[in-house]
Amino acid sequence: MRHNQAFPRLAGVLFSVLAAPGGPSALAQAPPAVPVRYTEAREHEVRREVRLSGSVESRTVSLVASEVEGLVTEMLVREGERVKQGQVLARLRTAPLDLRRRAAAAELKEAEARSKLAERGLERARDLFSSGAISQQQLDEAFYEVNAWQGRVEKLGADIARIELDLERSAIRAPFTGAVVARRADIGQWIELGGPVVEMLAHDDLEVVVEAPERYYGSLKPGAAVAVTLEALPGLEEGGRVGGVVPRADPQSRTFQIRVRISSAGGRISAGMLAQVALPVGEPYRATLVPKDAVVADGKERFVYTLDGGSTVSVVPVKTGEGVGSWVVVEGGVKPGHKVVTRGNERLRPSQSVRGEPLEYPLP
Length: 364
Hints:
By secondary structure, the protein is an alpha+beta fold. The chain has helices at residues 10-19, 95-130, 136-169; strands at residues 2-3, 34-40, 42-58, 61-65, 70-75, 82-83, 88-92, 171-173, 178-183, 190-191, 196-201, 206-213, 225-230, 233-245, 255-262, 274-291, 296-298, 301-308, 312-324, 327-332, 339-343, 354-358. It is elongated and about 125 Å long.
């Protein structure tokens, strides 16, 4: 919607032209045609909207915890810093784990040697048992010896794998791409198993949470397209969709919580911002739409310029209704198919000569 300050002075301007020396003959020296862009008014199905206030939230908020205990030796991020999934956030001291891995590796080496020795002993025991030199019990003991050392080898291998996993977990990584909003640990601090390290949120996975009066509950459907504006970002209108309606009313306010999925608009929208959500309610109806850029405001009055035969313009007062994306419902003398000026209409006057070119606006 555009504002026009020249329109109230139109009568004075026309009087000056008629009263000037030469009278109407001065019109012969009219200025050249003004270039403008125009768009055809359309008929489209719309629904009545209700505007509700809400707050932007991240759909993914996480208190990143440590999977092992240890002493913090490095904190690699600060509040407000954006990180990628898998990026190291902090490191714990690994010297105790390194020593345990070396000790377990040495034990594994011994166990593997004894396991091979037991296997050779089992082969000899089988030969001796075949010749009757040893009893069945002695053969069984040789067999159990092999199994025991093989079990020991497997256990030590598992111990080393667990230690190596703990070494890997000593580098605490971001579970998703997002931003650090708080540090819960610092260098020199002892972290218990499951202790918090940082708090993160996904800055590209946002939603607006609004409380809708119960009278609108039956009209709100998941997947419905909505328009979102933000107090901190005037002029920005972001499209969104109803992600879900929580089917439980607040017992005091009798409102239902609605969650609207939106994008971050290239990082311009952040969690915590105040938002206005235009929710469609009621039954759909057919209406005449023009681009919002076509509507000119003069105080409380609203009007559009229409092309007359493609060479001059006329002023048509209108009443505006629901906004539908970049379009708006109008009532008055504008009908579907009328060419309304959408560019260059700020300084136009009635009957002014224009040179129009079409400009397309995508329908919602």
